[in-house]
Amino acid sequence: MTRKIHHEILVIAIALIALFMIASTASADAHEVNTLRIYGEEGYSAAFPYTDPEAPFDPMNNESPMKDFVTFNPALMEDAVVVNNIDSKQKVFARQWFVPEYTEPTGMVWLDDFRCEINDSVEIIDEANAREAFTELPVDVECEWIPNRNEYVWEDVVTEYTYMFLDKHYQPRAATAKSPTSAYWSTFWFPVADNDDAQIGLDGYDINYDGVDDMVVLEKVGDFNYDGYKDIQISSELMAVDVGDSVQFLDHIVEIEGVYYMVEELNTVTNINSH
Can you give the pTM of this predicted structure? Predict the structure, then answer.
């Protein structure tokens, strides 16, 4: 009798093990890739815009994301990058975190105002006079950033990309916009186009929809809004367009609807439909 009971217990044990193995296999099939969960809290995020240039690279920096974040292995881009007229490379660093109450837009936007002290007087520079005012301001002026835009709050997964130029020895290299002869001499890869409808945001390099990736040109480096930090101005390389073509760059897209001639020579391109 005892031997029979032991036999039945053994059969039950084998059956339980088999069921456990089936359940484990089903669970593994349901999750074909490894996953990682990151936690956020309220509006805790990184300190945008950064004031410390090491913040994007140093996980212990005071301006790094305040809750969980993931740092990915950097990507190396070696094709066609030119810095200061020298063949170079660029490295792209990426990290990601979750903010349950994320406020957008983040950082400075074109709707914001600036409070500038000019010749012992205070002037408010806004959207209407920003281009003219910043062009004519003296170099020693100080300006204070004043956010002035509608803000929206929702949960968001933030993905941050930081770009670094490298020399042939894979060491950081500083880029300048123009050569001593005032020619542009730094071109690099930067996503300025939306080429994938399934992905929200800037995800590609094809500016004019011809199936070929386009590089950007570093045109200017300076403190454009006099806040004490460096800014850059970039553009596309020269390209030929025809009526009906579309060109996109960052958050703008234009469609060429017509080219008109005046006094038998090309004077201007008009009828540009901007989206």
Answer: 0.72
